[in-house]
Automatic annotation (TrEMBL):
EC number(s) per entry: 2.4.1.21
UniProt gene name: glgA
GO molecular function, one term: alpha-1,4-glucan glucosyltransferase (ADP-glucose donor) activity
Cross-referenced CDD domains: GT5_Glycogen_synthase_DULL1-like (cd03791)
UniProt keyword terms in alphabetical order: Glycogen biosynthesis, Glycosyltransferase, Transferase
Source species taxonomy: Bacteria, Bacillati, Cyanobacteriota, Cyanophyceae, Synechococcales
Family annotation (PANTHER family): GLYCOGEN SYNTHASE 2-RELATED, PTHR46083
Family: Belongs to the glycosyltransferase 1 family. Bacterial/plant glycogen synthase subfamily.
One Pfam family from the record: Glyco_transf_5
Native species: Petrachloros mirabilis ULC683
InterPro entries listed in its UniProt record: Glyco_trans_1 (IPR001296), GS/SS (IPR011835), Starch_synth_cat_dom (IPR013534)
Top-level taxon in the UniProt lineage: Bacteria
Entry protein name: Glycogen synthase
Residue ranges of domain Starch synthase catalytic in the record: 3-242
Pathway: Glycan biosynthesis; glycogen biosynthesis
Amino acid sequence: MYIVQIASECAPVIKAGGLGDVVYGLSRELEVRGHCVELILPMYDCMRYDHIWGLHDAYRDLWVPWYEGAIHCSVFCGWVHGRLCFFIQPHSSDTFFDRGYYYGGSDDNMRFAFFSKAALEFLLQSNKRPDILHCHDWQTGLVPVLLYEMYQWHGMDHQRVCYTIHNFKHQGICGTEMLWATGLNRESYYFAYDRLRDNFNPFVLNLMKGGIVYANYVNTVSPHHAWEARFSGVSYGLGHTLELHQSKFGGILNGIDYTVWNPEADPHIPYPYSLEDFETKANNKKVLRGRLLLQDVDKPLVAFIGRLDDQKGVHLVHHAIYYALKRGAQFVLLGSATEASISRWFWHEKGFLSSNLDAHLELGFNEELSHLIYAGADMIVVPSNFEPCGLTQVIGLQYGTVPIVRGVGGLVNTVFDRDYDPDHPPEERNGYVFYQTDAEALESAMGRAFDLYSEHPEDFRQLAIQGMRYDYSWNQPGEEYVKLYELIHAK
């Protein structure tokens, strides 16, 4: 099949979070399976141009209708680690993608509405007619709307859309200016509840809702999160829309790229290891301690890697640090805060713990260091308030680092409690799970992990090895996406 991914990120050239990893990893898996895959991305001024090979102009004069005129664009083409990518560069005083950041502008809704329009205009004008358009998150929620309300009448009537929602929290709330800019125009038509009108604010439009309504299939990134989106508050007001469109909604678990995350051949760790020589992992723990100036003693080492924000359960991350120290363990944190108040909080904690030889807080992000932490830690804590899929716990499993997670979203689909999982026999369990959002629940799970580590070290080793046996690569998700594409393409 001929598949075009339309997204605001693709790792490693454009990466603000897990979305970029998913877009790249899925594209690679689809190509391995013999499908033709191309990607359409914004051409940000701040993206990693050093990860693009052979960048050249592929379509010089793309005129994208915008309001009552048109914006001139250039489309560049290059290969990002083997993936064929087209980058859209608008030449406009709006400087949509020349701002030194990917997200965070007051006009983000208009920036990505333009990108959605430009992506379809590029396909139309260049005579590209893919079988599937695969769009991601609110930034491209307008693509299926434009396709079925406008572009299908201009020669794009055989394209089908898969729309993947990675995070319901950000939905693309905008006003009537988006309609007039893109040429959709008819306010009363699109402000209907069964089209784009926001479910709770009748005076605004919701781009993510538009994607749900118009796409041929909608999925989120784990089966359990799909259930949560319909029956709990994690869909942030879109539950009724998902209920109305339940026949075309589901969940497909994300994978990770095992060419990047592989302790047997990881260039960022000094001592590669596998199931057969698991004891070698301890050498990485020793190197990690030396790098972060922690004392080299017989203690379990717990890690947290990720954003410091409410979604990730930042209050429990904070509690995990001090509970680990209280229990005689060590703690390493690698992450950056998304809010100033949280940043100040953790910088204060970093200063307070600066002389503690059992704790290190690295506030920022360092890709190389993250690999060493995964390889060197004994346990990794993921206490998220909500987690659509989660990659941290899956990477932890691959590196034999026992995950301690809250039972939400994709964490439920990947981590199975050693002591209390009736659906999996003991030899298939791989971590610890807690469900409440209070400190006592976290302590219960961490405490059980500490007890096993200290009192039954061989059993703890076996638990880590059982985690390494799981296959959370893109192999199974890739197969599921292909079946989904075939299903909607046949309609």
